[in-house]
Amino acid sequence: MALAKLEQLSKSVVQGPSLVTGAVPTKDWMETPAIFKEGNFAYPAKQEKVEYLNSQVGLEFPNARIWSPLEDDWKLPENWQEIILNGLKERLGKFRSLKIFMDCCVRCGACADKCHFFLGTGDPKNMPVLRAELLRSIYRNDFTLAGKLFGKMAGAREMTVGVIKEWFMYSYQCTECRRCSVFCPYGIDTAEVTMMLRELLHLLGIGINWILEPASNSNRTGNHMGLQPHTFKDNVDFLAEDLETLTGIKINHTFNRKGAEILFITPSADVFAEPGLYTAMGYLALFEQLGLDYTWSTYASEGGNFGLFTSNELMKKLNGKMYAEAKRLGVKYIIGGECGHMWRVIHQYMDTMNGPADFLEVPKSPITGTVFNNAAATKMVHISEFTADLIRHGKIKFDPSRNAHVLPTFHDSCNPARAMGLMDEPRYILDHVVPKWVEMPENTIREQTFCCGSGTGLNTDEIMELRMRSGLPRANAVKHVIDKYGVNMLSCVCAIDRATLTSLMNYWNPGCGVCGLSELVGNALIMDNEKRAMGYDAEGNERELPDGFRTMV
Amino acid sequence: MKYTFSFLAVIALVLFAWLGSQIPGMQYLFGVAIPYLAIMIFLGGFVYRVVQWAKSPVPFSIPTTCGQGVSLDFIKQDKLDCPTKTSEVVARMFLEIFAFRSLFRNTKSELHEGPKITYESSKWLWLFALIFHYSFLIVVIRHMRLFLNPVPGWLQTLDFLDAGAALQLGAPLLYATDAALVLGIVLLFGRRLINRQVRYISLANDYFPLFLIFGIATTGILMRYFLRTNIDIISIKELLVGLVTFSPVITAKIGSIFFIHLFLVSTLLIYFPFSKLMHLGGVFMSPTRNMANDSRAKRHINPWNDPTIKPHSYAGYEDEFREFMVENGIPVEKELPPQKDE
Description:
The complex is a heterodimer. By secondary structure, chain A is mainly α. Chain A is about 45% helix and about 5% strand. Chain A contains 22 helices and nine strands. In chain A, helix 6 (about 130-145) crosses helix 10.
């Protein structure tokens, strides 16, 4: 489906009849069915991908088939109701969060206008409270006394195929960004709810390809992109060569090297596509300058984990490679690159799922001697923590003027901000690597940051309009600083952001680039014995290449 | 429509208690049996719900971090919003439960031509909720004087302060919290009607407790300020003290208005454990708020963690790609089989 023109969408967002713009639907939400049309849903997972995942030990992805949300018949298993109710029962027993969040909501509405999907679409079911009610209504009907006695009066409703369709639509119009949970007086986290919805839908064979294909790739080849070991290596090698051309320094990086001190893992998107490539060059430059004893891995070549968007079993399985590879190679600890959801998995899930990592050591920077006690159990350090510590100890030198062509602002990615508390390390780094940078308005940064609109595996092209709508709050805050200060670069520490914000900026704020923080670090980094490639300015004077890393590739 | 139903339900409850309590002999039902039943259901139900929640484990450490986490020594941690120590978690929870801190953060977003989205602080809900909950709490505590004989000094002080007795003349003294409770209910109800988003999501069971508590407050106020001659406060106190000492006595002088009030309170107690009012218990147990953000420093245990889920093995990976790996100089565990001569 063609994406609406900017003027059109701009008008539609503000003037279209929606709950945001003031039009209250006359029909109760329970009487409003989800209607699928091309452009408002992400394509279902391919049959062979579902079959592949189902064949893996410990995973359950039944009912692989060819189906379409556009058709009436979704080819559900005959006992689908039983499957869902049993699945829900099981999960209520496994997750206290689910039970509490089902029972405690008072519908105060504090979350309603906190969701980027609601602000961009005006669809009432995109208010976090209503998104949760989609499940809560079923929970009440089958698991609570009030629901059994009073039915609809108590906000209960029966499980129908229509409900399943609604769940599919709205659990994939949530990026599990947790912004609503910041404002909820009980901390109700819609991410917990949509994670459960997605798990339940997978029990019926309902999932989207943009998540399950990368997930199965990651299982088999080690990364979402499906890069086989030699291709992965080639990609990194190319970046190293470009870096050598730019700096005159040969980059000594290794793959799958046993006995290295540190294993480095970053999202594979960083070695696959712009602008992530420049971020990866930043890592290479920094580690080279430090002479760090580290290795890349082709087996654990993915930092990201689409299992987080699928089921806790798949998340565990994919994440398991990090420790398995660290153990096999005999490294001391792991450094992780810039990525949002990857860091939610590492920070809040990894040690619980795949620990204890007692074969590793508490991370200690070989350059500064700093011991990262905040990662004492997980033994994995964020590249921004690692870099900020280097800067603090004066172990690396920068020429910020090399980044003079950019005036960045900083986008807090949802997960580092709201599921980790990593906010000031990137800002500290920015202070040192660019001549100047500015913040976006306070209600759109830090713990109140807005999602790029395409997280949790929704960065697929067939739902581009939806993505541009849900990304509007973020884009709008960027526009504010573009207009006010002339910002021309949106920096971030997330690989999904680097891909999705690029589309978002191209649409809402053309001319504003997107970069990873480590690109700015690498580009400003003064390396020993460097010979930066030179170019000429308009007057014919020799000078350093103005776009730094971006001159290459 | 949803509020009409809830409103009618409360009216029906009032009529039921009014008519019922006039039937000779039924005073015992409304004054003793139902209150005992209600308190049992309330306590039993509340405990049951909390135990049910507690039975489900918290498999993962999932606090919502609302500030800078503990990190390098020169990065300042936001101890309240991103706690790592138990004391910090307690402080966060204390402010959440007693000051509704998350609601204090509330903003209102507006969409303007451009498009341009603006956000402004919106503390109305926070204010309304505080007025409602605190006045209700004090009203409940104040009522203890009816159950206790003699009335302890601190309760008399509370009573004295609430009535602002030094400032008022005449009797009966007006309690500040009586007015505030009614005001709180009216404000919360008004917000539910006026805020279009909240109106759209509101269910009958969101309005019902509001009407019910409104009914309780009104009957209480009527009794104290307007229908004083219809009731006999001595008999009421006798009954209530009797209830807590398990020797209730009913005298004929207790008026219907009291039975209506007591019946509505009983209804609230019975309704409580089966409804959203359980947020009173749930707010203590929400994993996104009551957990420390220390999951990288300290291992959190998931009791149902499945050790059989293992990653796709390195051996399997190398077996599939060994040839490419060897060709491209990537170290392998097992070399390629020697090539056969052709």
